[in-house]
UniProtKB/TrEMBL annotation, chains A, B:
EC code(s) of this entry: 1.10.3.3
GO MF entries: copper ion binding; L-ascorbate oxidase activity
Places the protein is found: Secreted
This protein's name: L-ascorbate oxidase
Uppermost EC category: oxidoreductase
Subunit structure as annotated in this protein's UniProt entry: Dimer.
Keywords from the UniProt entry: Copper, Disulfide bond, Glycoprotein, Metal-binding, Oxidoreductase, Repeat, Secreted
Catalytic reaction list: 4 L-ascorbate + O2 = 4 monodehydro-L-ascorbate radical + 2 H2O
GO cellular component, one term: plasmodesma
Organism: Salvia splendens
PANTHER family the record matches: FI03373P-RELATED, MULTI-COPPER OXIDASE
Domain (Plastocyanin-like) ranges: 2-110, 126-287, 391-513
Family designation: Belongs to the multicopper oxidase family.
Signal peptide feature range: none
Length: 540, 540
């Protein structure tokens, strides 16, 4: 539908007439029944429930070509799954570039009836961060798939709960910029989001990022934040002036409304890790009974410079699990080293992992693996590591890679280490941030390092209090190691959460215990070769 | 892919890297095997073979929701059908607004080996006409489906074989317009199409129109045309300075290259029936050995004024079948009177037929009717005529209509008359041209009239030499009567060929002899309720 995420009208994929989609709220232990009817004219659709592990329901993970067939126009699909753990989650499209088109919303799971969180607060607020382009996602797909590739560029606008400003600025009078001050009634679709608070209370602010590209830094003017949750898991609380939020991350922070109640304050999100061409997103922390139309009297909070990686690394390293949290098995059964490189295939720019650029098959893996359909995807698994001798600090001497749809088959219940190895991109002196997101599991982030990962580095892994998460970032020219237990029967994507990077092949697929999966609904796999099989054989 | 149909780059749906799609050429009696693989990222696709009757292969008609399920991304479908009759045809998308997005191409069927056409010529040329908007078709769909509706407006550019000019004009020096002359090397994607001819020869020019909206008038400067074929059928030859070509029409004309061979000449197409905001499309008739870069020295040919309906009607009335052509049965078994009105449904603007705005079901009719699936579409057939007393000359006192997916079930082998009754649209003093196209059949155009059709008008029907066609136009405030024999088992769309009008509900569905259909491929109906049936029952 038409919508104005910023002051320029565009078209969004909306849910029930809303952008972002409605917030889904449940209690831990609930089983959700989410009825999706696809009302798009010609496009299929799926929705991924980001951070929900889908234990026992791998067909409800909402990943086209992996867990299910896209739901065709006019068709319906019921996502039925248990939210087993309280936390801050979100949902989003996982087909083509539909997340960029605005298909996302918040999913919040409260503690079960009679349970208590491990921290206290008086009130709760929630924001979903995203980024927005004026060019439609279909054109973006064509741009990315062109030879030479046309990069989508930086977003025009950052959004907080779907709201941002492009041609005007709320904070124009604090800057020398030529952008005009916004003249807003407050009823505009792009009017800033207002977080209403009472003075002298402790608030829990839930934060999630569904950005297609932007890594963000979030700050609240004049207020410190205490980080207590990351990706649905408790963390050892620590205080920060500002926090980094990568695409795929979620956090809860506590803050105290201890400032003068006769003013309002900024909540701002700025771009990290890429030279920003996008102004900060601004929301208003509104101290009641002050009118929300009173703009803050001080300038928006300052964030670290976009390329202040030491500050980002310090923030990431500070995130540790709360004592009493699950700890990782002491030794892995298998270690994958996934080299992330920007490559070419026949002149098309791609992202590749161990020199393979992921191309998703037509038949969802979950069905083709469960039913032993052999020609649905590449039979050969991708390599466990890149050939030795690759210099991660320099552009590749031969940047050509190949397409692949093979999967890593993980032994059920085995412990797997994955070292995500960053490298120089195609251009000299460029290495980017990539937030990697794992479906169906949390992993422990056991280590970060600079340059090339060496076997000896594993000795330094943090096995005592590593954070338990579903998204972990790799920093430029560095590596990040995660450990998880392959205990969830299903087929699971593990990929860079930057949507255009995934579109260009930056992901891998894990399969584990698929033979144990029972009850895949026909409608989840009624396409491709599994569809043919079902038609041949009748009901299973 | 990126393409510049005019001098502004856009995105088109292309086939094998070509826009328009490749010309398909066959001989009468051939069976074509057309392998379609859908390489779009998230959209389904179908292709309709416009003018091919699909006798015995109704599942190959390429109409989403009617003859087949849309072919999903990554999937393939083979269109296998016989081209039983020589003629000038074309093909195009028939799902959402994919025709507007550029999914079309020419389909030419030559006479069978050893056969001869009923007219002679030395050489052949072919043009496919279309119209082009700078706004993408997805945005157009959203615009049309909004409340209030946002009309797509007139096209930015008219295209001849996919080529037009927007910011510049080939004929700038002949007009007072402020548009700059084009500076072209000839290699541009939007350089004009060149029709190369030798002097003193007779050429057959094949013409088809795949426009989304525009009715066109075509002329060749300094050359008269002799019309010999319409929609794959011979017509009584007649000579014209210019010809009207409505969306869905195809013609062959003969012309003699009897002009000075030291000049080139214009072929131009201008808008009919809507106040034009689009400059004429121009192609170059290039007399060899003159260089094609020598622009014609005289101004483009003049066309009738856009609202010169008497001239359009005179042209349509002139089209009669060649003696020896099939003639219609003398009396119909059933007469449908289809009142075309512009209406509202809950504030959404629609087009309706007998007060019902067609909404296509998720399950293709061909499958649901063949397999007696009762809840796939409205069980009730739409009415055979509108309630009496409707004043076609005035806006409706109550312009509300309802959605409907019912079909007209035609007795197999019966003769059916359809009177297409035009009316005033929502606004005072507006009544538009609508070219109606019938799938699966040709019809005889037995009469045209002004105002409201009266029973007595049938006495004046031309049953002697009515043209046999698949597309017929209704003029403002008038009616057009067609007769056909329901002798082709299948389910067939009959609709206004203006794509946004069809999108807004301007069509009906005919079903005949579906119980006789044998051999529907599973992959044509592997969606919706027929998909569920196939999975339940296994192969049929």
């Amino acid at each position: 539908m038409h919508w104005s995420p910023d002051d320029q009208e565009g078209v969004v994929i909306a849910i029930n007439g809303q952008f972002p989609g409605p917030t889904i709220r449940a209690r831990a232990g609930d089983t959700l029944h989410l009825h999706l009817t696809n009302k798009l004219h010609t496009e299929g659709v799926v929705i991924h429930w980001h951070g929900i592990r889908q234990i026992g329901t791998p067909w409800a993970d909402g990943t086209a070509s992996i867990s299910q067939c896209a739901i065709n126009p006019g068709e319906a699909f019921v996502y039925r799954f248990k939210v087993d753990r309280a936390g801050t989650y979100f949902y989003h499209g996982h087909y083509g570039m539909q997340r960029s088109a605005g298909l996302y919303g918040s999913l919040i799971v409260d503690v079960g009836e009679g349970e208590k969180e491990k921290f206290e607060y008086d009130g709760e607020l929630s924001i979903l961060l995203s980024d927005w382009w004026h060019k439609g996602s279909r054109e973006q797909e064509v741009d990315l798939s062109s030879k030479p590739m046309r990069w989508i560029g930086e977003p025009q606008t950052l959004l907080i709960n779907g709201r941002g400003q492009f041609n005007c600025s709320l904070a124009a009078h604090f800057s020398n910029s030529t952008v005009a001050p916004c003249k807003l009634s407050g009823n505009e679709q792009y009017a800033p989001y207002i977080l209403k608070v009472h003075p002298n209370k402790t608030y829990r602010l839930r934060i999630a990022s569904s950005t297609a590209l932007a890594s963000l830094n979030l700050a609240i003017g004049n207020h410190k934040m205490r980080v207590v949750e990351a990706d649905g898991n408790y963390v050892k609380p620590f205080t920060a002036d500002n926090i980094d939020v990568y695409s795929g991350d979620s956090y809860s922070v506590l803050f105290r409304t201890d400032q003068s109640p006769s003013h309002n304050y900024w909540l701002s999100a700025t771009v990290r890790g890429r030279e920003p061409h996008t102004p900060p997103a601004l929301a208003i922390l509104n101290y009641l009974p002050t009118s929300p139309s009173h703009l803050p009297t001080s300038p928006p909070p300052t964030s670290p410079r976009w390329d202040d990686y030491p500050s980002s690394k310090a923030f990431s390293h500070q995130i540790l699990s709360l004592p009493g949290s699950p700890t990782p098995p002491k030794t892995p059964h298998r270690r994958l080293i996934l080299l992330n490189t920007q490559t070419y295939i026949n002149g098309y720019t791609k992202w590749s992992i161990n020199n393979i650029s992921l191309t998703l098959p037509t038949t969802p893996y979950l069905g083709s693996i469960k039913y032993n359909i052999t020609n649905a995807f590449d039979a050969k698994s991708p390599p466990d590591r890149a050939p030795p001798g690759y210099n991660v600090m320099r552009p590749a001497p031969n940047p050509n890679s190949t397409y692949g749809s093979g999967v890593y088959v993980l032994e059920f219940n085995s412990t797997v280490d994955v070292v995500l190895q960053n490298a120089n991109a195609l251009k000299d002196n460029v290495s980017e941030i990539h937030p990697w997101h794992l479906h169906g599991h949390d992993f422990w982030v056991v280590g970060y390092g600079e340059g090339e990962f060496k076997e000896g580095d594993a000795a330094g892994f943090n096995l005592r209090d590593p954070p338990y998460r579903n998204t972990a970032v790799i920093f430029p020219y560095g590596w990040t190691a995660v450990r998880f237990v392959a205990d969830n029967p299903g087929v699971w994507a593990f990929h860079c959460h930057i949507e255009p990077h995934l579109h260009l092949g930056m992901g891998v697929v894990f399969a584990e215990g698929v033979e144990r999966v029972r009850g895949i609904p026909n409608e989840a796999i009624a396409c491709g070769l599994t569809g043919k099989m079902l038609m041949r054989n009748g009901t299973r």
